[in-house]
Amino acid sequence: MFLTTFFNALVYWTCRLLMRAGPFQVFGNLVASFIDFCYATLYKIVTNSHKETEKLVVAAIKNGTGKGKVAIITGANSGIGYDTAKALGRVGYHTILACRNMELGEKALNSLIEETDLDNFELMALDLASFESIHKFVEQFKERHDSLHLLINNGGVCMCPYMTTAEGIELQFGTNYIGHFVLTDALLDVMKRSSPAKIINLSSLGSYMNAGIDKELVADKSRYDKSRAYYNSKLALTMSAATLARKLEGTGITANSINPGYVATNIFQHVGLSAKIQNMLFTNTVMGSLTTLAAVLDQQYNDTTGQYFVRCQPTYSHPSANSIKEQDDLWEFTEKLVAKHSDQRSYGTF
Question: Does domain 47-340 have CATH number 3.40.50.720?
Answer without folding.
Answer: yes
